[in-house]
Structures are given as structure tokens and as C-alpha cells.
Write the C-alpha cells for this entry.
Amino acid sequence: MSDNGSPMQQKPEDGQQEHLNIKVTDNNNEVFFKIKRTTQLSKLMNAFCDRQGKNMQSVRFLFDGQRVQPGDSPDTLDMQDGDTLEVHQEQIGGC
Amino acid sequence: MESAAQPADGAGHKWKPQDVTAHIQRAHAFAQTGTQLRLETESLFVTSSRGFGRELPPIGLTRPPLKSRRYTIDASLATGAFQEKRDYVACYYERVPEDLTYPTQSTAKISVSVRETDEPVRLRNQITLPDPLRYRELHRWGCVLPQFNADKYPGDNSGRDFLNDTYTQFSDGPLRNEDFATITLMNRDSWYRDDVMDAALALCSIYYGADDNEIMVVGSGTAQAFKFAAMADRELDMTELRAYAPRFQGKKWILMPLNDGIGGTSTGQFQGTHWSLLAIDRPNKSAHYIDGLGNGMEKMAKRYACALQKMVDDEEYDFSIEWNAPHQWCDNSTPFDDWGPCGPYVVKMIKIMMDQIRTLHNAGCDAEIGFHLSPDFRSRFDFNSYAERRALEYTIASFKADQVTKERATVHANTVLGLPRPLDPTKFGNPTWPNYDAPLFTQGTPGCLTLSKLRNYRELTLRQHQRHTSAYGDSSSDSSGGISINREISGTHHRVGCDGDQEGQFANDIDMQDQPVSIAINNDRGVRI
């Protein structure tokens, strides 16, 4: 067995947690996710939409008022443990 | 020794091999520089007879500089000058990037029976212009438009959904192909979505210099977050709202499109039906609600004005409904039935306000800036919802063309210089407005057209515009080095000779321009990815 262990077992050197607890809420429902800092948030978004039975294209995920892109990760958004993602319905208007 | 081909017309018995080496050499006096580069389309023909024989050059300057080059360009942009109907539609953005390796020397031979005094010479080597889309000028309407009425990529059976792919990325979020395709529709599907509205706001912010002119244009995301904070306990959560205050720091004028679907939760089905505008004039402590249908969203507008004043000023705003606001249908000069003009209406109103702010702010007349609409404003509004839609569509397409140009030019330059290809698209950054065809964003109202001619009309007006826009004309006449393109009306080629004696510069003067997903319920309400 290697003394080094696998990368998965290594702890971050900067003291940051490897996993974060993220709350995703649409003001009616709250779902908690435990996610790696480097995991793309598209997985979280897909999981939330699957659970809520929603189309990914008809909802908007916001973090601090900014749109969350599927390619973003907790690291790129500088998210902290316990942060919240807001989920909103797509807006449309014409008449 | 090279010999001429034996004739195939029955005169072979008289045939004697002849040495034509000298003849061939005479016909290829500049063998090293004789390669022709050509690009032929329905409306453009470009050939270059020199300078491509050794290697493909980069677009920009290099250090150390490359050797000086000398080349000539023939170009014609005369409509209908060529019978072959080829255009850049073949250059879709989704196409697999072409191999930019310099082609091996190939020889095209003429296989015809001839009996001439001088033997036919071989054609000179010809190569195609590598990746035309690295030049902004060579982007055409056909290649910047998504493939309408297609929900899948042609020939792609992987199930990739074309309509859900991102057309282009703005600061406030992506614009999908489906969103883009709906901008100029006039039926129920034409209602502006938040992504389309945000794209329009982002372009307005760039064009009118929102930051420089102390203007804050609030996108749908921030507007949603406002509502969210208000929904928490049915009262305004000022702690949460004040987290947004720094974004409004130093902004004198706030423009916020409102949608009656704001605050809709992901479990709800209501997405909204109408767009209106809330304009805050902080120096004059006034809030103006402008609606193309009257005052149906007055309550929401008041609530947002209240939230904003508590957040940024903590002072009272004088709230007023602008009853002189034009009507979105009665004051709409579009020749078509537009089922959803409120989106274009709000965009038009924002453009007028930002233009007024920019003009007066630059003149040092901030005191004269006001959002109150006078009784005669309606007569000056000049609203055509279809023209607004078309202008927005083309401006977004120009934005994308600019992005693609920068990306492809960088990739090409890095390839021919042997540098690694950039992988991060964000390195290219967003284009700046001066590279756009800005006048198109405010182009005039089109005449009455039948719906069946809309697509042709788009292409026609685009070409007419390009022909009469001085920026395009300047691109040819002012070029001092690289390729220059000349336009003409007559339908004949126009030869332009260029001495590219600049150091290592080529065509720079073209002014056209992680772990598989495993979901497990974590205790009773958590999900682990």
C-alpha cells in the first residue's frame, strides 16, 4: 500500500474543507447538497431540477445575485460552507 | 526531363517525346512564391498570388518580426458577380476546426486533349484561405445565425440539443440558441425572455458607457434577488438587501426592467406576462414607473422603489406613474402584428434614457437630466417593435462575431507560430463596442414587407448597410499594409496591389475585422454529489 494514499484522501493544505454543504432553495423548498469544492455546479443544478421535476432551461440559479453557470464550481465562485443558491423561475413577458 | 503528354486524337503515330522542362520553368517563373490563395463566395472573391508559398503567416506582429513580404490581392464584392453560389454558410461555428498545417505541394493537371504549339502548363498550386472567420469582415449573416428550425445538429446522432446550447455569453448570463432564434419572431413565442432582456441590457450598458456615466442597469438576476429578500418574511430583509448596496455605489441613475413574474419559485408555473420599467433618478430623489400598458404593475414598482431607496439612500423617493408614456401597441409603427412588444418597448425606453444621460452628462448638464415624460414625448418616441427586434438580433450577432474573430485569430496565430492553443475562452475577453456595427442598433424603420420576405430582407438590408457604412469603406482605402478589400458596384474585379513591406505584419490592417455523479440521500434531507 502506498504511503502517499490516493489524492482523494489528501486534505487541502490551506485548511479549507474539501467538501462544502450548500443549500439550494426556491423559497418553498430547501435541499442540502454536500459537494466537492472542485465539482462543477452543473451536477448540483441537474440534481435539484431532477428532484423538483423542473426543466433546467426554465430556472435560474443565483449566488449573491449573480447567475451561476453550469461550468462554475464552489472554488470559482469562492463559496463557503453553508452558502445558499437561490433558484428562480425564468421570466418572460410580451403583452 | 519532362515530356509533353501524347495526344489522344489519333495522331499518336507522329508523336515524338519533346522536352518541355524549359517551357514549364518559364511558365512558373516564381515557383517558390507562385502559390495562389483564393476564396470565392457568392459576393466575394479574393485571390492572392504571392506570399503563401513558404508558410502560413500569422495575423499580428511577431517578435522577432518575420521577413518582409510582398503580395497582391484581388478582391471583388460585387453582388452577383459570380455564378457559383458559395458563401460562408459552410463556415458554421460548430464546424470542426480545420487543419491549418500547410498543405503539401500538389499539382493540378489539365486532362484535355490539345494540340497547340505551346504545351499547356500546369496550374499553379492553389490553397484555400485558412479559416476565413478569423477576419471580422468575413463574417456573414449566414454563419452568425443559428440554424433555425433545427433542434439537433445536422448529422449528429449523439442527442446533443442544439437549441439549448449557448449562442453567446454575456456578463449577466448565457444566451441560448433558442433565445436568439425567438428575438425576431412576432407570435406568442416572441415574448422576451429574461436572458434576451439581459443581453439587451448588457449591450446597452456597453454602448452607452453605463459605468462612465454613473448609470446602473439592473438585470433580471439582481431583480430576482431583491424580490427573494422581500419574500423571506413578507417584509424587506434589509440585511440581505444591503449586501447589494456596493453595486449601486456611485450610480446616480438606476434603470430596472420589471417583470410580473419576478419572484416566481421553481415549483411555480407562472413565468410572467409583461415587462415594464422602473427608473430611479437619485439626484432628484424621484422614481418613475413607465409602462406601455398603463399602470398594471404599479404596486410592484412601488415596492421595488421602496426597497431601492432604503438600500442605497434611506431617503424618500417621489414615486410617479408616467401617464404620458406611449402605448406599446397604439404607438407602435411596426407593419406586422407583434404579439409581444413590451420587451422591445422597454429596451427602446432604456436606450432613450441612457442616450439622454450620456449626452447631458458629457456636457456637464447633470441638472437637466430627468425621467419625466413630457406630453409630446409620444410623438417623438418613434417606436417600431420589429425594427427594435431586428436591431437587437443583429447587434447580438455582431457581438458573437467579434468574440469568434478574436478567438480564431488567436488560435490561428498560435498555430502558425508553433505556440500552444489557448484553451480558456475567457482569455479572449469581451469585445468592446467600437468593433460593432453600432449604427445598426439604432437603424431606421424598415418599409412594409411581407412575412415571406423577412429572411431575404434581413440579408438585403445587411448588405445595403455594409455597402453604405463608412467604416467598411474606410477599411479598404486606408489600408497601408495587409489585405485590403475593395467594394464596387459594377460586377467586375478590381485589382488592388499592396506592397506589404511592414515588418512581420500580415493582414493586420483588415478592419473588417471532475468523480462520477453519485447521488445518495444523506440522512433525511441531504443529497451528496
Summary: Chain B touches chain A through 57 residues (CB under 8 Å). DSSP finds twelve helices and 15 strands in chain B.
